[in-house]
Amino acid sequence: MVEMSELFLGLELVIVGMGITFLVLIVLSSIIYGIGRRITKSEEKNNKLQEEITEIQTEESINSTEEKNDEETIAMIAAAYLHCFNSKIPIISLSKSNENWKLSTRREMMEGL
């Protein structure tokens, strides 16, 4: 049978082993927590700098897009005016309209399948 001294020795080893394990886990978790706090502090500093930079850039881009939008708006209004009132000035179309031969050959090829 098992003697009481062996039983106490086993119980003592279990308690010491679990105690050491939990102490190591506590130390590791505190180290990870400290590293996490340092990272978040540095990220907050970087985010503040990035926000300031983006604010400056958005102000500049708003000014440049307003100028672009004015030119585009004028061109669109002129094109709509010319289209609505059928003036003799032709509107240039950038798409090719003579692509019927492509469609017919594709149709022929599909019918062959």
From TrEMBL:
GO terms for biological process: sodium ion export across plasma membrane. It comes from the Archaea. It holds the Pfam family OAD_gamma. GO terms for cellular component: plasma membrane. It is found in: Cell membrane. GO terms for molecular function: sodium ion transmembrane transporter activity. Keywords: Cell membrane, Membrane, Transmembrane, Transmembrane helix. The chain crosses the membrane at residues 13-35. Its main location: membrane. This is Oxaloacetate decarboxylase, gamma chain. It comes from Candidatus Methanofastidiosum methylothiophilum.
